[in-house]
């Protein structure tokens, strides 16, 4: 068995997978945010993780004979797989992993939250293809792809290649101001919803098939802006726009922005697959608008491509990706040791 731990800005997550990669346990606890507030300070989030971890760890491994069965631990130690990437919240999970690793003498692998998102998104995907067929083992292939990570703390498009441990990630598109999840939560809180507001805002928008309101988007060479949408949304509300119209227009604009950014990057790269992860990518309106726009480009340019959308349970923050990456890194080390 392999244990995964992730302590992100807003969710404490612990997962356990078996030697075949089957998910045995997946436990998560969303951190509480006071009504009317738009987030947590790092110190507040760190405290909540420290409070949540003992109970989640007991739920995941309390009845498991881990002393002889646990082979490795994977833990997110930073937001991104780049030098100097750091947030205090990840110290909570890292500390638990280090203690457990020393106590039962198993290796632990230092991973990033972003890599965990990418790997978890590969677990189960909804794949839409235009004249392109993904190999059955595409999750393990080394061919580069684009990976979208849209959440409350990140809005990036990455050029990704598999490595022996985790992924090599290069940012090729990103928000130059607000993150997509920040935008959604700010508008939701403005409408009186609890933080995080994504699901409640989507429920408000879902009954609409079209909306009379359209928010402008700004995309340049794969980079984009969301702050203008926030200002436009505030102005619309002040003018008496219906909240349901605004909710739909907001998600439609995020999807349109993402679609335009992906198209700009497809024009500059040779990739044939795009993976979508992060909590915002669980939104059906965002997914549909991005897919529709990208496929229109593919048809007109005869560009084969597959769009792989993570199922909602794998799109949001979790520790499954860390567990699976640790499993694969452990297996690679074992194979190398046998060959040597």
TrEMBL record:
GO cellular component entries: cytosol
Q: Is Cytoplasm one of the keywords UniProt gives this record?
A: no
Q: What class of enzyme is it?
A: transferase
What InterPro entries does its record include?
ATPase_NBD, Gcp-like_dom, KAE1/TsaD
- Show the GO MF annotations: metal ion binding; peptidase activity; tRNA N(6)-L-threonylcarbamoyladenine synthase activity
One Pfam family in the UniProt entry: TsaD
Q: Which GO terms describe its biological process?
A: proteolysis; tRNA processing
**Catalyzed reaction equations:** L-threonylcarbamoyladenylate + adenosine(37) in tRNA = N(6)-L-threonylcarbamoyladenosine(37) in tRNA + AMP + H(+)
Q: Where does the source fall among the domains of life?
A: Bacteria
Q: Where is the Gcp-like domain?
A: 47-320
Q: What is its EC number?
A: 2.3.1.234
- What UniProt keywords apply to this chain's record, in alphabetical order? Acyltransferase, Hydrolase, Metal-binding, Protease, Transferase, tRNA processing
Quote the protein name from its UniProt record. N(6)-L-threonylcarbamoyladenine synthase
Q: Which organism is it from?
A: Pseudoramibacter alactolyticus ATCC 23263
